[in-house]
Amino acid sequence: MQEHSSTATGKSGTRSFLVRIVIIGLVTLLYFVAGRFGLKLAFVNPTTTAVWPPTGIALAAFLVLGEYVTPGVLLGAFLVNYTISGSVLFSIAVAIGNTLEGLIGARLVNNFAHGAQAFNRAPDVFKFVFFASMLSTGISAFVGATSLIWSGLALPADYFNIWLTWWLGDAAGSLIVAPVLILWATEPRIRWNVNRTIEALFLLATLLLVALAVFSNQSIFAVRNYPLEFLLVPVIIWAAYRFGQRETATVIVALSAIAITGTLQGLGPFVRAQPNESLLLLQSFMITVALTGLGLAALVSERREAETELKTSNQQLELSRDELEENNRRMFLLNEMGALLQSCATVEEAYTIIGQLGKQLLSEDAGALYIINNSHNLVETSITWGPLPVESDTFTMDDCWALRLGRTHIFNSSENAINLLCPHLGYRPPAFAICVPMTAQGETIGILHIRSDSGSPAHPGEAQLYLSEAKRQLAIAMADSVVLALANLKLRISLRDQAIRDPLTGLFNRRYLEETLEREFNRALRMKRSVGVIMLDLDHFKHFNDAFGHEAGDILLRELGSFLKQHLRGGDIACRYGGEEFALILPEVSPGNLRRRAEQLREGIKHLTIPYRGQNLETLSMSLGVAMFPTHGSTGQRVLNAADAALYEAKRTGRDRVVIASSDDTEELKPA
After folding, report:
1. Could you read off the pLDDT of 417-434 as tens digits, one per residue?
2. CA 597: distance to chain centroid?
3. What is the Cα–Cα distance from 153 to 522, expressed in whole angstroms?
4. Which of 306, 351, 563, 668 is the most exposed place for a label (fewest CB within 10 A)?
């Protein structure tokens, strides 16, 4: 019997060994084929390419299969380099570097980012990017570039260019190729219903349509190298939001293949004079897209898991009929709150919705939303509801136990051995209270406070009142919904300002100017009124920069921005047109008033005091060009051109003056 058991064990071990040999051989073959393909795109050196899929193949093999595939990676790396360079020592050095790159990257990911499960959580995705795509790839790039110089296959002057190309190619391979291999290997089954399959086909068709529009020779946009790469971002977001990490990684690989093909054919926004430079720019873009897509997919997955856990916990609650109906009503209001908060345009609107729906959600209790101020030293009341006692509108962060502990704090909970009253509640303790810290992206922005002076005993005949589990869960869910909505709202407001504001002066940027100009002109046509445009430019600004430095120049531009804000009407619009050139839009102004306003600005700038390093900078004069709509043009660009021409005339004739644009023939104007 024991002999039979030993025989069976021996056969099993032999079978396992043979399977591993086959897998190692397949890894060698796959690495070699992918490496040969990558080196066909080597432009800076025959053994250096910005497209190197083998890095992703090796990393995926180590993470999914284990380190026993090391011989396959080592042999594949040696063969692919030897067939190109013909140098044994160089090929051995590079093979060792490529193998160490994969081994070190896999070990770091296993230790710090949950290995092959790294794409399930957003923090692990960023750890994967850092360890596997940025850190470990530098090893291979260093070994490869150094070996090329040492073996005489490249010039020392080309070291940095070779290292950068090598590193970026490896980084792109690990971030584009490895995820799709790992995700399909760990989850090969497709669980799509009919609707999801149809949506997947539609996603694929959209990807091909958009990618070909950007990179195909059949597209006029690609042929003219228009910078339309941003059109690809919604497709990645679609895949991440609707399908998950695996499908997002697949979309990224397909997009990368199309983009590389188009770029090498001289099509798309990344084309430059040198093919290697084009590929470096493309790979940088693809790394950014991959990081964004995989990170977003992980965030969506985490949120879905959190929602699933919340629903599961709610379903497990044993509630009576009345409690279940009340819970359903509250959940409806909570969802309504989330939907309304996502549609808010200002923080004030969000606070109003939180106050009104908070009163409906917790009709028997009082509540308040406290937000930490920008200095992070005080907590201020934003909105209250219910019979909340009159307390201080502000308190320090140490006055709340939830902020001290970094977790939900409950006063008078049946689970707490010690009841600690938050100092911000004053000297009249409530029957129970809960403070839920609201944390978004690792930053605590405030607390949600719920309190009550009435309630139900924990047990029949018991006088002491406790916070029910249902109310505790509701308060936490409400806090999660509120913090997510407020964080998203503040992010949208910040992004909107960044999109239309010049960061140095705080004025509107050129993009906003072009959009606003047409809108104002159309309104003026309908109302049969005029619009004034002033183009102004600081005189001798370059000499000022040369004399005082760029820091002083930035201060001067900032002060000029503040000066323009102070000297314009509420409806006027000031924009930084570019460099030291500014554009002003003045609706409903007469030519005479426009000229006077321009002269006031010209004179006012001379009295501007600008302190810098203990001294006042010398003031500059400015030249101004003035044009009117519709007198000097029927479109925004024509009027701007007229004002710009007048500005240059002012500079040509001596600077420090206002010049009115010359009139031209105007066509018949019709309201848009």
Report:
1. 567 788 887 767 777 888
2. 42
3. 65
4. 668
Helix or strand holding residue 435 (H, E): strand 432-440
Cα separation of 266 and 273, whole Å? 9
Q: Which amino acid is at 77?
A: A
The residue written with tokens 């321009």 in the block is 598
Two structure tokens written together for 378? 């005080």
Among 533, 554, 362, smallest CA distance to 450 is for 362
Could you tell me which residues are beta bridge partners of residue 537?
Answer: 581, 623
Q: Enter the DSSP assignment of 609.
A: -
Range from 126-130, 356-360, 475-479, 552-556 that averages highest in pLDDT: 126-130
Q: Tell me the CB-side half-sphere exposure of residue 392, using CA atoms within 13 A.
A: 14
Residues 6+ apart with CB under 8 A from 573: 508, 513, 516, 520, 584, 585
Among residues 371, 353, 538, the alpha carbon closest in space to that of 438 is found at 371
Task: Respond yes or no on whether the N-terminal peptide bond of residue 630 is cis (omega within 30° of 0).
Answer: yes
Q: How far is CA 375 from CA 45, 436, 600, in A?
A: 53, 21, 39
Contact 443, 376 (CB under 8 A): no
**Cα three-residue angle 382-387-391, rounded to 5 degrees:** 55
300-313 residues labelled b (16+ CB within 10 A) or e (exposed):
bbeeeeeeeeeeee
pLDDT tops 80 at residue 281: yes
Asked if 269 and 228 count as a contact pair (C-beta separation under 8 A), the reply is yes
Residue-wise pLDDT tens digits, 156-192: 888 889 899 999 999 999 999 999 999 999 988 888 8
Give me the percent of the chain exceeding a pLDDT of 90.
Answer: 21
Q: What angle do CA 128, 495, 199 make, to 5 degrees?
A: 60
**581 and 609 in contact (C-beta within 8 Å)?**
no
- Rounded (10°) angle between helices 136-150 and 159-186: 140
- Region 538-547: what's the mean pLDDT? 84
Query: Which pLDDT belongs to residue 551?
Result: 85
Cα–Cα dist 620/607, whole Å: 9
Alpha-carbon distances of 615 from 211, 555, 611, 618, 619, rounded to whole Å:
56, 13, 5, 9, 12
Predicted local distance difference test score (pLDDT) of residue 462: 41
Q: What's the one-letter identity of residue 543? A: H
If residue 205 lies in a helix (H) or strand (E), which one and from where to where? helix 194-215
Convert 600-634 to b/e letters by CB count within 10 Å (16 or more is b).
ebbeebeeeebeeeeeebeebebbbbbbbbbbbbb
pTM of the entire structure? 0.48
Residue the block writes with tokens 């239309």: 500
How far lies 110's CA from each of 128, 131, 276, 471, 664, in Å? 9, 10, 33, 40, 72
Q: Is 301:118 a contact under the CB 8 Å cutoff?
A: no
Give CA–CA dist 118/466, Å, rounded. Answer: 41
- Weakest mean pLDDT among 33-37, 74-78, 455-459, 513-517: 455-459
User: How high is the pLDDT of residue 610?
Assistant: 79
CA-to-CA distance for 159 and 166, rounded, in angstroms?
A: 10
CA distance 506 to 562: 8
pLDDT, greater one: 474 or 221: 474
Strand partners, 276: none
Structure tokens at 401: 């136990």
Q: Are 230 and 259 in contact (CB under 8 A)?
A: no
pLDDT band at 392 (very low <50, low <70, confident <90, very high): low
